[in-house]
Amino acid sequence: MATEIPIWLNASYVQKVLRKTENDESIEVSDITVKPATAKGDNYLSAMYRVTFKFLRIQGGRKVGGEKSIIVKTTFEGTSLAELIEELEVFYTELSMMSVTLPKMNEVLSKASLPQLGAECLYYQYEKPTHMIVEDLAPKGFTMADREKGLDLDHCLVAIRNLARFHAASVALVEKDPDALATYNKGIFRENQTPLLITYLKACVKSLANVTPYWHELSPRISEKIMKLSDVVFAKGCEAAHFREDEFTVLNHGDFWINNMMFVYDERRVPVNCIFVDFQICHRGSPANDILYFIGTSPSDDVRVLHRELLLHEYHASLAVAMRNMNCSTKVPSFENLQEALKKRAFLEVIANMISLPIVSIEKGTDLDISKIAGSVDKSSHSGYHRKSYKEIMIRVLPLYDSLGLLDV
């Protein structure tokens, strides 16, 4: 969604923040440049800006200078999307994660000699303009992968290993402080969800139902089932994501897809690590929630078809090693337990394919306003549903979902 650069985001403001966060009144900021940090179609629930500037400060009795870049993340103030974001409370979840919980998790990871999984939060503000300032990961070599191509096996293995470490760190954190994750109970699928979000989900599923009749490779019965499914998709999502105290639970990232991770590469351009961004939908629950969403949105289709089992084994092995390295007393679930959890929540992958994968499929540079989609329930909502790449995936998976009863109301 296109946004204008906030008036308050200027040299004077950056200087004030730096002086406060670094406790140095000598800092002077100049030559500031503010640009969008993401391309159109790559970010939907917040606005992100890369701020580059020069600075001077007094050290050892003389002025020294340098250049720095930071990322400023803000809400969409005064836009059609602001109401939805406010009701979802996603920005406040992320502020809590970045300022309190993630630093504690990174500390746990560090003690186990594992790399951090989120950028450092330099400053945050709850009052309006609600925003936060985080380190810019680009100078460290981190970049986004190509969402249109999807992640190849090397990228997927790096991502799933780090997801397991993220989950393990949350387990270790709860063992130290049982109330550490108590506030993270507001995932997408929860009671008292905003009607705007429920309408959005319904609109997306109807969009799929509107295009599938033209996919002659599919039985007409499937289109009819998807149309009926649109009326109950939120309720079925709540049932699949339901928090169960008697199961192995972790802090889920909640929006673990290709655009919310950045990779760093070796000299052969092989990914060696990744770091996570956008902690807006973090919530407690089964690790299956994140795993199914990742598989439904992010791998290239050949990885989905050929290497799904490998990814699950890699996740499980990485979880076990990380929990052991963090000296967790919680029992690691068996691989069979993990498979059972995935089976119970399989509908979450269906939702990811029907609602999020079309966004992944949108052509680069395409702008998207999800608040408008929520207001167009009876129309095909955006171009992602019409992309050839999306159709090729869905004509393969929809008959499979149908055979498993996942499309039944």
UniProtKB/TrEMBL annotation:
Domain of life of the organism encoding this protein: Eukaryota
Phylogenetic classification of the source organism: Eukaryota, Metazoa, Ecdysozoa, Arthropoda, Hexapoda
CHK kinase-like domain span: 132-325
Organism: Neodiprion lecontei (Redheaded pine sawfly)
Protein name: Uncharacterized protein LOC124295110
Gene3D superfamilies reported for this sequence: 3.90.1200.10
InterPro entries, per database record: CHK_kinase-like, EcKL, Kinase-like_dom_sf
Matching Pfam families: EcKL
Coiled coil: none
